[in-house]
């Protein structure tokens, strides 16, 4: 493999002086491989004992230099580490989540409010359109999950799915599929749990916003870990929080806050886990957040019943 000595001219430098990933020309890369010092983007980063390496150096260092040279990214900051599995499609889980949300939305269009009543988050039983609708307190805990994939208005699902696509793809590449899916699901559950705890019990809520805010928090943690410019993600977070707490209401702010807090905590555990105990710290953090979510649900249920 050709190596670029530190003193050589960087062929990946853009016209404005910024660096571009050597495998993805035009994509901004603010860090270099610790072995060959070529600039790499988040999709190409493989977590090493110190810093990050590019996939080519990982294959060479692990004795698999003859392996696939198709340019496909490997799991990054929270992924499988050196020699991690090749990600054939770095957005596979994101696409599946998008598909599930869209499928449920189409089902709602076909069946109407009846399906919404069956799947949305309701804390306690209420009468709706002349019939009783039971909630989580009556044992329908599945609503904590189904409400995460439920949308009723076009603007609502459009906004959330755009957020999922923009935030989810890079995170899936950086964390790996299993960790990314765990982050998404627990963040969404945390949003549902906080809504269940703090919102009016008979008030219904729905949407993937809790999970999306979890991805937003995780993005901020990852960008801070990689020493990226934090201003874009902080501006995006500020705008979303302003929308969340707008004076006109109509938004389940509890889900947004719950997802944001959970996603941030999980990402801290994933991104900053020490190499020698990486899996234990990463999944241990997820387990602790999940236990906290379950505790909130159990305590709230006891209070309502």
Automatic annotation (TrEMBL):
Keywords: Hydrolase, Membrane, Protease, Transmembrane, Transmembrane helix. Pfam families: Rhomboid (PF01694), zf-B_box (PF00643). It comes from the Bacteria. The chain crosses the membrane at residues 92-110, 149-168, 180-199, 205-223, 230-249, 255-273, 280-303. It comes from Streptomyces pulveraceus. SUPFAM superfamilies: B-box zinc-binding domain (SSF57845), Rhomboid-like (SSF144091). Residues 20-46 form the B box-type domain. This is Rhomboid family intramembrane serine protease. One of its GO terms (molecular function) is peptidase activity. It is a multi-pass membrane protein. Residues 139-270 form the Peptidase S54 rhomboid domain. Belongs to the peptidase S54 family. InterPro entries: Peptidase_S54_rhomboid_dom (IPR022764), Rhomboid-like_sf (IPR035952), Rhomboid_protease_S54 (IPR050925), Znf_B-box (IPR000315). It is found in: Membrane. The lineage of its organism: Bacteria, Bacillati, Actinomycetota, Actinomycetes, Kitasatosporales. GO terms for biological process: proteolysis.
